[in-house]
Every structure is written in C-alpha cells, then in structure tokens.
Queue: 3 jobs
Job 1
Amino acid sequence: MFDFLPEYWSLTTLYVACAAVGGAIVLLQLALSLFGFGADDVDVEAEVDLGGDSDLQFLSIRAIAGFLTMFGLVGWAGTVTGWSPPISALVAFGAGLTTFLAVAWLLSLQRKLDSSGTLDPKRAEGSTARVYLRIPAANVGRGKITVELQGRTAEFEAFTTGSELATGTQVRVVRMTSPGVFQVSALDD
C-alpha cells in the first residue's frame, strides 16, 4: 500500500521520524524564546484572505512543525494500537491538518496584538479636546490643548482663527497644520 517508502522504512518509522523532527523544531523554538531569540516566526509568503481583516499565514515554521509533530504522534499511536495503515494515516493526517490550521489561526491572532505604541497625532483630528493653556484669538499666538488619544492623554500646541479660548474650554480639533500643532475651534462654532 505504501510503496513510496523505501524497504528499510516502515510506516511506524515514518511516523516516529515526523514526530521527532517536528518535536525538535518545537522544542528548539521554545528554548530560543526563553532566551529572547525566536520571538518572530519565519513566514513563507502564503496568505489566504478569508474576508475582512483576518489573514492566515499558513506556511510558517511553527505551523509546519505542529503538523509534523501531531501527524507523527497520532500515526504512531494508531499503529501501536493496531489500526490498519490507511486508517492510521488518515487519522494522523487529520490531526496534523487540524493542528496546522489551529497554529496558523493562533499566529494570526497574535499578529493582531502587535502594536508599535507610537502616538499618531493625526488621529486627534475631529476629536474633542480641552484647552490647557489659553489660546489667543485670530491666530495671534498659540496655546495648548490636552486630548484623549490612543488610550492616553496627550498635550499639543494649538491655535484658533476665532475668538480667544480660555483655559478649561472644550474645543473641537479641526486639523493638524504641522507636526504637533493643531487648529481648534470652540464647540459651539
């Protein structure tokens, strides 16, 4: 049935070899991550767009190692318990494929957690802010505003083309005119 295997290989040997190779890769990645190496997975550019913003990168080292490990262990267990070769191969392949897809899905979730932590001031446009230091009228000078941005409070320089805005006044951020400088207007304008 499995004529593709050399004479000195049995199906059990194939399963044990797959489990050993896959398990060694998993253990190596675990050991490297404990010492701060291997935090990023090596990905082969093969993404499948499932709609929306969920992209699974199937061909990653972790997903392949998971497939090999589970395929080998389940196949080996199947032959030891006396399953027929086609049944053990089918169940082993199913277990490996399930592990492969689960690892790819978990890695896609992990990628979504990645964040640079860098504040993007442009996101303040259109939001409400509070005047921190008085803003002179008719763009004669600058004051300061505080705005809730990306989960934290940020302080920026601001000017207005309208009337003077006193400290504590709620304002609308109109636009960013240069890095860290915003045009604002009173909320009732």
Note: The longest helix spans residues 85-113.
Job 2
Amino acid sequence: MDKKQIFVVDDEMHIRELIQYNLQKHGYEVTTFEKGEDLLQKLKQSPADMILLDLMLPGMDGLDVCRTLRSMDETKHIPIIMLTAKSEEFDRVLGLEMGADDYITKPFSVRELVARIKAVFRRTNYEPEAQTETGTIHIKDITINLNKREVYKGDKLLQLTLKEFELLKILALNKGHVLSRDVLLDKIWGYDYCGETRTVDVHIRHLRKLIEDEAENYIETVRGVGYKLKE
C-alpha cells in the first residue's frame, strides 16, 4: 500500500522539522513548506492526501489558503487540519467555516497530532469501495449524487466541502427525522473527535447558505435537539 503523502505548511522551521521527523517515523511521506503560496504551487505538480496548515503565515494566511483549496476542483476534497497557536472560539469556528476538517492548537504532542491525522483519514476515506450508499437523492430542486459525491441545485453544481457533503447526505438519508448534534458529530466527525457540537452548527449554517434561498428552506432547526431535513 502506498504511503500517505502529507503536506505541512508552517513558517516556523523547528515545527516543520519536528512534524516531518515524527510523521515519517509513523510511515507517512512528508513535504514541508514555509508559505501558503509555495504549497499551492506544489499542488499543481503533485497531489497530497492531507494538508497540515498553520493559521498564521506570511503572505497568504492559513484561512486564505484554505479558502483557495476549497474553491478548486483539484484540491477541494483534500482533508485539512489547521494548526493554530490561538485557542479562541472565533479562530476555530472561522477555520471550520472555511472548510477545515479539524484543528489542533499549539503546543500539541506528537501523539495527539498522529491520532488526529489517523482519525481524519478514517473519516475522509473517499475511495469508492468504502462507500455503502449509492444512487441519487432528489429533494425538490436539490439533487445529491452519492456515487460522484456531487450536489446540484437545479443544474448548478454546488461546491461543498467533505463535511458539508457528509452532513447533507446523512440528513437526506434520514429525511423527516430529527438528528441531534451529538449524533451528527459522532457520525460525521467520529467518536474520537475532540471538538464541540458548535462544529455542527457552523457547518449547518454554511450548508444553508449553499442550498437555501428566500423561496425555499430545507433544513429545520429543532430547538434544543438538533436538525432535520424537511420532507
């Protein structure tokens, strides 16, 4: 089995070297970058299986890089873990809104970092043989193609992140049934995810912006419980 290729972007040399050394010990191929622009240039030449992305970078910051990655077809499905020295909720939420799959706050232990990487790889395994649901789901003018992992509103292809697609899929497969935030967190982010149920609210809000408009609301909030997709 080929080794997973992880790209690491951090402007601190000792952190890049520490991450590279330890991840290579755990069997990963690691390439490091000091700037986000260098990462984007490299991705034009060779793909990555995951990106560890520092929030505070010279030039393009981590949020801008994340936004750019999620806007391009070639990179929108690559799992991203944000590295940040900040612990405020604002920074965590903003990173998740930009499409990050997880975040880890500095300083972190190598053991925690490796555990997070393994967890994200488990949750974002997008090989076709790993998928159990197939076919197409139609909800009014929304079409969800489970095989191609594409979502259309009318004939417009929507740009959803990995987590947004998974969230819409699980709501669609359970249409009319209320799913609690804890259930959604467990099913999509995994039982070992260290985040909060606030993560679900952030992704629901972003998903609504993509699929809803003034004429049609699809996702209903059930106060104090969670969310459901209207029948």
Note: Confidence is low (pLDDT under 50) at residues 126-132.
Job 3
Amino acid sequence: MANRGLLGPSVKDETAKFRLGYVADPLPGHEPYRGMLAIPYLRSTLDGQWSVATMRFRCLREGCEHTDHGKYMSLPGDPPRLFNTLALVGNDDEIGIAEGEIDAITATLCGIPTVGVPGADAWRRHFREPLLGYARVWVMHDGDKAGRMFAHKLLAELPNAVGVGMPDGQDVNSLVVSHGRAALRERMT
C-alpha cells in the first residue's frame, strides 16, 4: 500500500485511525485472505468502544491478475455497507462519497470527510438516507465507464449531490498520489 501513499512516514499517524491490517496468519476459514490488506469497517459503540461491523480484503500482490480471486474480497454472504461511517458524525455541511475504501481514506486524509461504497455497483438505495441532511455531497468517481455510471446513479438519487470526476483512468487515490492533495480540492471547485 506504500504505492497508494497510505503507509509512508508522512501519513502513518493519519492512517492509523482506519486500523488497516495485513493477514499474515488467517483465522480458520479465512485462508483465502492470506497476504491481503485487511480493511475493517469500524463502528463506535454507545460506550465509546470500537467494534468491527465487517472486514474487506484487498490483494497486495504486484502484477496479480486476480484470476483465482477478486482484487477486493468480502466475507461470504456479507452485504455491501458504507465504509467509514464515522465520517458522518460531526460534519455539518459537506460530506464526500467515494467509490471504494482506499479512495474514501485518501479523500478523508485530504480533509474531506468521506464515506466509501465498496465498488461502483455496490450502491444500495438505503445508503442515501444518512446523506440527505448535508448541504452538499461530493460524489468522487473514477475516470472510467463504471465510475461515471456510479456518479450518474448517485446524482439521480441525491438532490444535494455534486459530481467530482477524476481524470480518465484515475481514481481519487491515484490523483492524490500523482498530483498531491490540493489536486483533489481543485477538482471540487
């Protein structure tokens, strides 16, 4: 994940709150996730403790074609959920929504509290309800056909949504890694 700009010394403290992990010694039944990045979907309990609603996993092997597994994997039978729902708490006017967990983390590190949808086709209608109370929802989408379809769907469902497209072939993370944090903010003006 160093090539995604999430593990270097300059962001180590910032990314720690997302509690990303590495599956070195998987639990029984979780062997397919060995060597993958573990992405916990964190929730805060009423007594202020952390809990994990679910986990997703991302392949880290360079050059992997993902023929025997997906680039991202969910636990069997697990429904799509919003990632980083803690971003919904304490942000009065604006919120971001991104296509994927890594993009949501990246946008949040850029100062835009952002939730993530686990893939361009994982949007569920009930995800819209917590987003309706914001003055603006920044829909940050990948610069590809799937990303544009994702944005089109959200812009139709959220009256407070504003589309923020990435350059062709890029996503939020690749834009920030290649051009810096300010590049994302510039696309939002």
Note: Helices lie at 12-15, 101-109, 145-157, 172-179, 181-187.
